[in-house]
Amino acid sequence: QEQLKMKDQSLRKLQQEMDSLTFRNQQLAKRVELLQDELALSEARGKKNKKSVESSSQLSQEQKSVFNEDLQKKIEENERLHILFFEADEQHKRLEAELRSRLEVLETDAAQHQAVVDSLTKKYTETIEKLQSDKAKLEIKSQTLEREAKDCRLRTEECQQQLKNLQAALGSRLEESLCIINEKVPFNDTRSSRYNALNVPLHNRRNQLKLRDLAGQAMAFVQELVTALLNFHTYTEQKVQIFPIDSATDIISPLNQKFSQYLHENASYVRPLEEGMLRLFESITEDTVTVLETTVKLKAFSEHLASYLGFLRKILPYQLKSLEEECESSLCTAALRARNMELHRDMKRLTAVFEKLHTYVSLLALPSTRPEGLLRTNYNSVFTNIAASLHGFHDILKDISKHYSQKAALEQEVPTATQKLITTNDCILSSVAALTNGAGKMASFFSNNLDHFTTSLSYGPKGGAEFISPLSAECMLQYKKKAAAYMKSLKKPCADSVPYEEALANRRVLLSSTESREGLAQQVQQSLEKIAKLEQEKEHWMLEAQLAKIKLEKENQKLKNSLSGHLTETIQECSVLPNIAEQKKETTEKSLREPVKSTSLVRNLTLRVPIRGTNCSAPDVESREDLIKTHYMARIAELTSHLQLADSKSVHFHAECRALAKRLSLAEKSKESLTEELKLASQNITRLQASRFLCNDELMTTKRSYEDQLSMMSDHLCSMNETLTKQREEIDTLKMTSK
Where are its TM segments located (predicted)? Predict the structure, then answer.
């Protein structure tokens, strides 16, 4: 604004100068016109009279000079006056502007001073009002404090009375508790960390379900990693067989042969990782208490990871030498050589990060075998290092994926690149991408749940800091199972019970019965074996019958085919038939005259067949065969019945002998159990005698603790009295200040 004012002033000054100059120019122009008119008149007069002209010219020149001097003086005076007027006008304007600016400043200062005065007056009025309200509040507060002081006096009297009552009640309860401790409590297990570790901690079902869910997610991630690792090693083996030398056309180097041989064994090292994680997931159930001391399966997973780390260490030098050999190949360009050296460094970093992971996982497995190897204070640092190692593993895999994609693109430009090499590179890239994704998921999963792992895997029994040893943790889990089974049994409705004496009698009968469960099971097993043998024999004879039927069909077909060929031979055989018939008659007569003998296990049966001449008919022979058949069938049935009777008797005698042997073993076991109970009873007697002295010591300590509590309560009453006196003093001071 000040610059704008200055510009306006200069503009006005210039405009005034312009106006003055235009006015002066107009005057001069008029003066020049007058002079020209006079010159014209003088010239006209000069023509009339040259002489007069000459004289007048002299006069005119003098007049001109006088006029010029006069004009010059007038101009200078006018200029000087104009300058003085302009300077006076400028000075007046400047003074007016300064005065106006000063007036504005003074007006703003006056407004500010007025605002400050108004604010101060307002502030002082508010403070006065506030002080008045504070004064009223303090008066009310002093009145309330006086009432509270009266109440405190009454309460102190009541507390003193209650203290006396409590002392009397605590004394009676102390005596009662001492009597109960003397009679009932042998020892307090929570005082000793060794015994407290066997107590079952509070069951956190939500925590167990959360841990099982997290273990399931971790198992899924490990399965993804295992699949990707298997594919990566397998496709790497194929790549070694193809590039830089194809094994189908030429012999690859012994180094690559050994490398591919080791890579072929990758499944035996990678698969156990998935199995170990599955066993770990199965061990985390809703009913168990999952802490590092009870996760025994983590040790097996650590061992599987160690075996896989050994596999990586075994193949690492071959892999590095294979990359160096590929760099020395004639097909390898400078860019491809640079990519190979980058992969050379990446593979070393990959093995190093697996070594870190194995170290930290083995540390986590220590509490289940040697608790002194890892303290609970170090759990958080171990989990943090595992999360950092997983993130490092993810970063290394991203670098491997980047470098391998560049390497595959360069290998495609090689003139000897085949379609098989391109597809193998694509498969390796896909497996590395799957590895990268799985490692990223695992790293983010572990980082997100790091606090939960640290807090949930480090709780223990109530009143104790931790489990003493894996053995105590295992015993605690057994006690937990027993307690859960006991609670379930309490929830079940009680069935109709059998009287105790009847139940004992039934138990003795069941234990000593000949038809016991074991004997029946053995008989069933023997009968099943017999049935199986009979089934096998049945199948065998059915096969034999089928074979015989097939042979019969073949023979019939042969006979039909040979009928046409034997027609001529039948005529010749007709002449020979009478002789053959005579021979057959002689042989039948001899056989009929000889006695027929039938032998069995019991006796020999001799059947005399009567000879009725050579005219013996066919029905007699058939009836004789039927008689022999019926006799043998009856004999077989009799023998089988005898055999079954003998078998049943032998089974009965065997069962009796087994029952007697069982009775003998039960008697021996009862004898041993009774002797052990006798020993335990004697030990309990000695232990109770020792615990009696311990209980006396504990009673003395509890008595001292009660006395300390009473002294503390008396000190507390004294402190309350002191606070009451202080409050009274404060009330007095507040009254004085309010006045």
Answer: none
